[in-house]
Amino acid sequence: MAIRTAVIGYGNIGKYAVEAVLASPDLELAGVVRRQVEKPAELDRILVVADIRELGDVDVALICTPTRSVPEYAARVLALGINTVDSYDVHGKLADLRRELDRIAQRYNAVAVVSAGWDPGTDSMIRAILSLMAPKGVTYTNFGPGMSMGHSVVVKAINGVKDALSITVPLGSGIHRRVVYVQPDPGADFEYIEQQIKNDPYFVNDQVEIHQVDDVGQLMDAGHGVVIERKGVSGKTANQLFKFEMRINNPALTAQNMVSCARASVKQKPGAYTMLEIPIIDYLYGDPETLLRQLV
Amino acid sequence: MAIRTAVIGYGNIGKYAVEAVLASPDLELAGVVRRQVEKPAELDRILVVADIRELGDVDVALICTPTRSVPEYAARVLALGINTVDSYDVHGKLADLRRELDRIAQRYNAVAVVSAGWDPGTDSMIRAILSLMAPKGVTYTNFGPGMSMGHSVVVKAINGVKDALSITVPLGSGIHRRVVYVQPDPGADFEYIEQQIKNDPYFVNDQVEIHQVDDVGQLMDAGHGVVIERKGVSGKTANQLFKFEMRINNPALTAQNMVSCARASVKQKPGAYTMLEIPIIDYLYGDPETLLRQLV
Question: Residues of A numbered 233-292 whose beta carbons fall under 8 angstroms of chain B's beta carbons: which are they?
Answer without folding.
Answer: 233-237, 239-249, 252-253, 255-257, 259-260, 274-281, 283-285, 288-289, 291-292
